[in-house]
Amino acid sequence: MLLIGLASTELQAVERDWLAHPAVAGVVLFRRNFASSAQIADYIAAIRACAARPLLISVDQEGGRVQRFTDGFTRLPPLACIGRLFDHDPAAALRMAQAHAWVMATEMRGIGVDLSFAPVVDLGRGNRAIGDRALHADPAVVAELTSAYVGAQRAAGMAATLKHFPGHGSVLEDTHVDVARDPRTWAQIESEDLRPFRAGLAAGAEAVMVAHVIYPAVDPMPAGYSRHWLQTVLRAQWGFAGAILSDDIGMAAASAAGGIAARIDAHLDAGCDAVLACHPELVPEALRAMQARLGSSTSPHLLALQGRSIADHSAAALQQARATLDSLPEDVFHA
Q: Among residues 21, 176, 228, 279, which one is catalytic?
């Protein structure tokens, strides 16, 4: 199945046809789709009206520089701020992680978004694409904060997505524009980068997004194309029964498999439940590539990512979480 990108703030006729296509499980929304809180809520309702089946509405609402919806929503600090707070007040940082997750998830559920691809659990070790999106450099700290974040996110009615498995933080290259290779051994990766993923899954995270990074000491293919990473490690060794999502097939590092059709096939054959085609210009080719796979229903792993209604989406609970975020010291926020 595909999660596709759309072009603008209004649905085009051809996009309505895409959304009705049986290969499309949902959409990934971006800043280009956003004009205001009222507009985006109406836009999401229009998307849902295009198909009789439930469509998964997703976004990257991480905070900091990766916050797609801004005006009318809480300014979410980058996750690195929470990690810096942990260095001198761990208890406050855990409360901050919970508040961040609660505010993000509650505001997104309020406009009909099912899923924000969060939290980032990559280690903060200088990767050009990750940067301050990472909580911390120390795997133990990231694991502890991840558990707190995932618990609050799920309590707010949103499934949690751990990214970018098995860890994007320890290489410099940005997979949007470069091929990335992490030469470390399995033992090194397991003892460091995989620790936050284990913690997040233990806290109940329902999804994992896979990196386009190659780990040649483990497998010659990028992780998203690797049956070893997805089937042997995630499914067999770890017993993960949730959704496995690709990263965007429009990224430069995804080209290791070939063209668009080859990228989709490689992801699905490796075990991904959904492939992200975030660039609208790639969607027609992606839909053609899916023709041979039609007939299969939406994965139950994806259906489990639909947003849930909960009893405590109260204004008081949201205001309390916002107040916690507001208490973040400015020197930590801007460090």
A: 176
